[in-house]
Hints:
By secondary structure, this protein is α/β, with parallel strands linked by helices. It has a single domain, classed as P-loop containing nucleotide triphosphate hydrolases (Rossmann fold). Helices cover 44% and strands 18% of the residues. It is built from 11 helices and 8 strands. The protein has helices at 17-30, 45-50, 59-63, 89-92, 98-104, 120-129, 141-159, 180-192, 205-213, 217-220, 225-239, and strands at 4-9, 35-39, 71-72, 77-80, 110-114, 132-137, 167-175, 197-202. An 8-stranded mixed β-sheet has the order 3-4-2-5-1-6-7-8, sandwiched between helices. Strand 7 (167-175), helix 8 (180-192) and strand 8 form a beta-alpha-beta unit. Helix 1 (17-30) packs across helix 11 (225-239) and helix 5 (98-104) packs across helix 6 (120-129). Residues 17-18, 41, 45, 114 line the site of magnesium ion. Adenosine-5'-diphosphate binds at residues 13-19, 45, 117, 173-174, 201, 203-204, 207-208, 211, 226.
Amino acid sequence: MSITCIAVAGRKGGVGKTTVSCGLASVFSNQKKRVLVMDLDPQSNVAFALGADPTAPGTAEVLMGQNPKPLSINSYLDVLPGGAELSNQTVQMTHPEELADAIANFSYELVICDCPPGNEHLERLALVAASSVLIVANAHPLAIMGAGRVMSELISYQEKGRKIAERWAIVQSLIDKRRKLDKNLDAVLQEIYADVERLIVHQDTELALATANQVPILEQAPNCRGAKDLIKVAEWCCHG
Ligand SMILES: Nc1ncnc2c1ncn2[C@@H]1O[C@H](COP(=O)(O)OP(=O)(O)O)[C@@H](O)[C@H]1O
Ligand SMILES: [Mg+2]
């Protein structure tokens, strides 16, 4: 079975990576696609956001060669939590293709890897495992810089002929076009990265509420603007 693996990255914290990861997982599971979210963040926010135990064994144990049981959120959606073990030296020393190898043995249609802020090794494992990358940035200049660093890494791996995701898009996140920076973001990105696809997830209280209520967004508010945005992001992931 061929697995579509999507990495959700961005370097900067608080830009909406976990919201996009969990939202996409909700969209795919609603389409009756078997989906696993792997949390690569030591803070372990994904399991919490989807209503599962964030302290259960998960991605770190996979990277240490164990076989933890994914936590079931619904019939189509499972989660492997992150956790402090991801900062262990053993995990930090893993081969860049270790996560890709582990995922190749799973039986899901889709695997979404939610990357941590800052930790380049954990992020790299996901970029190597993924076929597509969503690079999440809000309109803040530091977030745009973080997105640029992820793209530089992808391009440098490609140029060296190493295994790495083949395609990527920028997700403009937390967008409220009444704010000047947000209104200008699309034009700024068009100027710097003219040939990179730009997607958008507007700021939507329902997305924050879904996390607070620990339910997938399509259970929280299936028709909200954020859910509609995420359906379009999911289309890019599956069709381009
Ligand atoms: N599109 C959005 N609309 C409203 N709130 C959002 C949106 N995206 C993220 N948030 C909120 O912003 C905060 C940071 O989001 P999160 O997804 O955890 O970011 P990251 O994973 O990049 O650190 C959370 O409180 C989350 O609920
Ligand atoms: Mg996060």
